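Follow-up to my earlier ticket, as requested here are the two runs.
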Amino acid sequence: WAPVREDGSFDFEAFEQLLTPRTKIVAITQMSNVLGTVTPIKEIARAAHAVGAKLVVDGCQSAVHMPVDVRDLDVDFFVVTGHKLYGPTGIGILYGKLDLLAQMPPYEGGGEMIREVSEDRVTYATPPHRFEAGTPPIVQAIGLGAALDYMNSLGRERIEAHERELSAYAHEVLGAMNSLRIIGTAAGKGAIISFEMKNAHPHDVATVLDRYGVAVRAGTHCAQPLLARYETTATCRASLALYNTRADVDRLAAALLKAQDLFA
């Protein structure tokens, strides 16, 4: 596992020590969905390529919060999901370097992914078609395209700046609450705040917040080994977005005070 420090920052030096000529694939997130930590993908790519490894980056969390240039980062593969980009569920995007995609066989068969078929042989279409067998998710693709157009119309840099200011305010407000422990405070992190409340399970806290009209995610966030690193089993996670305001943060804080009084 790629190590993180106590504040959630990525330990690049320790990560480099894990790489050997036997390393074939480095799979890592660009932004942690638990800590909000932004990993130095460009440097990670250089280190991975230096030992002959390919780099697969999970950009599901980062793509909605920050501008991403896959060519500048020099990643081999980059994946995102539609629903975290304000689009539909059931659709995502896989970017891959063309020469690598051309070397890869398809993982399923169906219409539109072949070039020629005979009784004893088959040749496949060029990428990306060889990986898109059968009828695609047409409605979802249209919806995702509209969502991306909407984000681009606002400006990725504007979205990032808005969320950065809002995240700083949220850390200031929630950090002043003695009953909370914020997990992940690395500099330059994304607009994600994971926390736990003394004497209360995150599911119970989330239930109280819901009663006051505040939606958070509670649980393991599909990252149990990471939570074990911080000696906990679950957290609440508040994810700030382009439509949130300081008033939303204040409402979260007020609801947390209600929960604090209930579980004290």
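Run two:
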Amino acid sequence: AKDIIMKANSTLLIGTVIDFPEGRSNLEAKIKEANEAIENGADDLDFVCNYEAFKDGDIALVKEEILIGTQIGLAHNKTVKLIIEVAALSDKEII
């Protein structure tokens, strides 16, 4: 996709999702996937939060994923977003 965009002299950005759809992979797998996405030309990285850890109250793991994902983005001048699968949460968990 990046080659096509460059050949067209377009400023279109490429975004991808890391660890879709459930965010259950370990941190090493997420790091590998993010680095591969960057190598393949991704401009935006949307990390899927490990919502099972979130639901279980393992905030330390969620924070670590946010920190590492953000560091990867900053190191490569990429936009990073965190996705929380709200549909998998109860109303109480959302509030």
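The only thing I checked on run two: The longest strand covers residues 44-48. Let me know what else you need.
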